[in-house]
Amino acid sequence: MTVTVRWAPSPTGRIHPGNARPALLNWYFARRHGGRYILRMDDTDQARSTREFADGIEEDLAWLGIEPDQLVRQSERTALYDAARDRLIADGRLYPCYETEEELDRKRARARLLGKPPIYDRAALNLSDADRARLESEGRRPHWRFKLDGRPVQFDDLIKGPQTVNTSSMSDPVLIREDGTYLYTLPSVVDDIDLGITHVIRGEDHTSNTGTQIEIFEALGGTVPTFAHHNLLLDGNGEPFSKRAGSQSIAGFRDLGYEPMAVAIMSSLTGTSLPVEPYETLDEIALKLDFSAISHSSARFDTAELDSLNARILHSLPYEAVRDRLSALGLEGEALWLLLRENLARFGDITEWSKLVTGPVTPVIADEDRDFLSLAKALLPPEPWDDTTWSHWTEALKSSTGRKGRALFMPLRLAITGRHDGPELKSLLPLVGRKACLDRLP
């Protein structure tokens, strides 16, 4: 059996870390087992789904490092759903209902007053052909419900363990709207059967849907996949991520200059027993992450932790990994990268840091340090410079002035870089060069 998984976003907005979590967990599972990864666009919501959002999702996945083996769009697969609909109707598992939403609300309220569960009473099953014809002549159009078996449905969840969903406590789900369009459930099951999905890996908020979906799999004669329901990822306020609420999108993190690996690691490893630390590739994570490592409690996406992780990733990147990105900024040289990388919080920061070498720099010079810096200028060693130049220079200044420690090096740093912080001057001086140092000293 070839492991085949799918990630099925709705292209109704840009994806956020909460969406990226199942996208990545499915990717890890497929890579770990040498399987296939299918991207399925659940774009049956014609009012809200757009091709622009779908293209954005593909762009976000590619940025995170996910390359689907296949892309399908539900909007192009309607014939499959129609065939499944006709089969379920013929088998008596899909039946038309004519109640309006207001009538259903009244039924639910009445059931609650009587102390009964507010589930659909299946009144539509008692309608005669004449009743249905009369209702349709009045302008009513049916929605279609799937007739549940009403039994305990058991399945072994790869994350949550043995599960039981009793469909007798549930309303027969609506699979087709009054306008004839499909809700999520039927197309999803039909696609899973047609595409040979072996494992469905998704958020735990779908656990209760699984009993219904297993009954539909069985009614259509399909093989029931193995399910795995992972914990949810919450935002910094402890709330679920939401497209509608404007939660931070993956595209937003990209625009802010975060590394894709940092966002991928935070989105997928937060709430697991694996450390949230730099990894070189997603495949490295795939080999290490077993589903037993996923917590049963929700996890929180902490942007402060993301900032720290992003910096750690940058500080460890070799020059070869960033050569092209540096060239795009007009910067060259391994020495420059190795000098500046540990000062970066985000890659784009290097544009500003590189000015320490290329200029312009606005020297910061205190009045009380002017004589000292004039002497420092006079004692500046001749070129060529190397990583010993700093020590030779400061030793000469120490002998001439008696200054040492911060009183010695801080005025030099402020004059040469215009900053209190930054890379070691020992390594910086050879890149700055003698002429630039002379220009910056008073």
- Please report which band the strand proportion falls in: under 5%, 5-15%, 15-25%, 25-35%, 35-45% or over 45%: 5-15%
What's the CATH superfamily of the largest domain, by name?
Answer: HUPs
The strands making up the biggest β-sheet line up spatially as 1-2-3
Quickly name the level 1 CATH class of the largest domain: Alpha Beta
Largest sheet, strands/sense/barrel: 3 strands, parallel
Walk me through the topology.
Layout: E1 4-7, H1 17-32, E2 36-41, H2 51-64, E3 70-73, H3 78-90, E4 94-97, H4 101-113, H5 129-137, E5 143-146, E6 152-157, E7 161-166, E8 174-176, H6 185-194, E9 199-203, H7 210-219, E10 226-230, E11 233-234, H8 250-255, H9 260-269, H10 282-288, E12 299-300, H11 303-316, H12 319-328, H13 334-340, H14 350-353, H15 355-358, H16 370-378, H17 389-401, H18 406-417, H19 425-432, H20 434-440
Keywords: Aminoacyl-tRNA synthetase, ATP-binding, Cytoplasm, Ligase, Nucleotide-binding, Protein biosynthesis
Domain Aminoacyl-tRNA synthetase class I anticodon-binding: 340-441
Pfam families: Anticodon_2 (PF19269), tRNA-synt_1c (PF00749)
